[in-house]
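EI: anyone free to look at a 152-residue chain?
SC: sure, send it
EI:
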Amino acid sequence: IRVARRWKQQHGIRALYVDYLQRIEVKSDAPKHERVGMVARGLKNLARDLQIPVIALAQVSRAVEQRQNQRPQMSDLADSSEIEKEADQIMTLWRDMSDPQAETSAAEISLCKNRHGNIGTVHCRWHGGTTSFVGVDRVETRRYGNGGPDYA
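SC: here you go
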């Protein structure tokens, strides 16, 4: 947190990316899910204080791989209840792994939670060479129960 504040002051950072939320350590004897909650609250407070978005990557349960439909859901996040409580938005990524060596494959970005707007799925393509997700010419979207417009 101190480093982020210093970067904001010295370099004017406009966003903070945290790789792997559940790996941030907190000095506490509390159970793991409570420690994850402490970290999530701390990151949310940091975002408010610095007035920048904080994007945190989180671990997904291996149980996703055992399901017929391997698209991750919000409940697949490790310690998901604590993350769900604090997050303003939760997005999951999926790509077709039927050919793991393929340079491109079908992919989806699913906005599972959005406190300030609609939720839905963006169908896109994953490009291995640049490790990026890009839009497709004709996007088919799937509604997620809120009746609002889908993202494309």
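EI: Confidence is low (pLDDT under 50) at residues 138-152.
SC: 👍
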